Amino acid sequence: MRLDEETGIQVEQGPSADRRFEGRVAVVTGASRGIGLAIARRLISEGARVCVTARKPGPLEDAVEQLGGPGVAVGVAGRADDAEHRAHAVRATIDAFGRIDVLVNNTGINPVYGPMTETDTGAAAKVFDVNVIAALSWTDEVRKLGLGHHGGAAIVNVASIAGLRPSPGIGVYGASKAALIHVTSQLALELAPRIRVNAVAPAVVKTRFATALYEGRERELAAGYPLGRLGVPDDVAAAVAFLASDDASWITGQTLTLDGGVGLGGAIG
C-alpha cells in the first residue's frame, strides 16, 4: 500500500518486481501532479525512464525530484498546444534516454462550466486545441523521432467518461473527449501494426483538476458508485500501464472505462 499524496487515500501499488517497462522510455504530458504524475510514477516503478511535461517549471521540477531525479526522469515545461514545446520535449527525451517507446497524452483543460449553448466559441476552440489537436500533434512529433522503431510501441490517451455520453455543465469538455476517443480508434487503424493506440475514460477522480465536481459532496457522489468510492490517480495509472505494456499487445483502438461501476446505472455523477 502507498499513501496517495494528493488524496490522502491508501492505494494499492503495482509490484516492484514487475518490470514490464525495463529499458523503455515514455513521454507523459501534463504530469506535474494528479493523474499524470501517478502515471509517470507507475511507469518508472516498472522500469521505465520518463519525460514529463507541464506548463509551470516549478511544479515540474518538484515532480522530477519526486520521481527520482534525472537518472529516471526529465521535465520540459511548456504548453501542450505549442509546437516548439512539443519538439523540444521530444528532442530532450531522445537526448536524455536515446529513444521513445510510449506516449501518454494526459494533458487536458476545462476552463468553462455551463451549457454548451452559452460557451464562448473562443474558449471552446482552446479546449479542443489542447485536448484533441495537441494529442494528435504529440503523436506526430514522437513518430517523427522514432516511436515504433523498436517494437512494443504504444500510445495511451486519457479521455473521460464525459466523452461517452452527455454530462451536465461540462459539455464542451465532454465533446473534446469524445473527439479524442474517435482519434484514438482512427490512429489505431492508421498506425497498426507498429504502434498500438488505446485510451482510458475515467469517471470522477480525486484530483485538483476535478475538485469542482466533488468538493463538498464527495460522500453523496460516491454513494452512486457501485464500488463505493471515487477514483484516485493510481487507479488510472494502473490501467494506463497495462495498456502501454506488452500485456496488452493484442489490444488496440479501445477505450477502457474506469468508473467504479457508475455507468451501470446510466449516470456519470
UniProtKB/TrEMBL annotation:
<dbReference type="Pfam" id="PF13561">
    <property type="entry name" value="adh_short_C2"/>
</dbReference>
<protein>
    <submittedName>
        <fullName>SDR family oxidoreductase</fullName>
    </submittedName>
</protein>
<feature type="domain" description="Ketoreductase">
    <location>
        <begin position="24"/>
        <end position="198"/>
    </location>
</feature>
<comment type="similarity">
    <text>Belongs to the short-chain dehydrogenases/reductases (SDR) family.</text>
</comment>
<dbReference type="InterPro" id="IPR020904">
    <property type="entry name" value="Sc_DH/Rdtase_CS"/>
</dbReference>
<dbReference type="InterPro" id="IPR057326">
    <property type="entry name" value="KR_dom"/>
</dbReference>
<dbReference type="InterPro" id="IPR002347">
    <property type="entry name" value="SDR_fam"/>
</dbReference>
<dbReference type="InterPro" id="IPR036291">
    <property type="entry name" value="NAD(P)-bd_dom_sf"/>
</dbReference>
